[in-house]
């Protein structure tokens, strides 16, 4: 599949909504998994909070990066 074919497929309404929902659920699933492991195995409150904040910002950054890619693909 060429880039032009892929880009037109991603720009379609069904595919773009499916891709956005998939990656939103993937990031939420990652957050829940990281949160559960950290809460189960890291007991000092400060370290737990720091790791959760860093993980949250990392996952948020991944989501923003994905949004930029999708917006550029759909707009171009």
If you had to describe this structure to a student in words, what would you say it looks like?
With 76 residues, the chain is mostly helical. The protein has one domain. Helices cover 91% and strands 0% of the residues. It has 3 helices and no strands. The protein has helices at residues 3-11, 13-41, 45-75. Helix 1 (3-11) packs across helix 3 (45-75) and helix 2 (13-41) runs antiparallel to helix 3 (45-75). The longest helix is centred in the C-terminal third of the chain and has 31 residues, at 45-75. The chain is elongated. The two termini are 18 Å apart. The mean pLDDT is 91.
Task: List key phrases describing it.
76 residues; mainly alpha; 3 helices; elongated
List the helices and strands and how they pair.
Elements: H1 3-11, H2 13-41, H3 45-75
Average pLDDT = 91
Structural class of the secondary elements? mainly alpha
| Main sheet attributes: strand count, strand direction, barrel closure | none
> Any low-confidence stretches, pLDDT <50, length ≥5?
none
Overall, the morphology is elongated
Q: What assembly state would you assign to the polypeptide chains in this entry?
A: single chain
Provide the succession of SSEs.
HHH
Concise overview:
This protein is an all-alpha fold and 76 residues long. The chain has helices at 3-11, 13-41, 45-75.
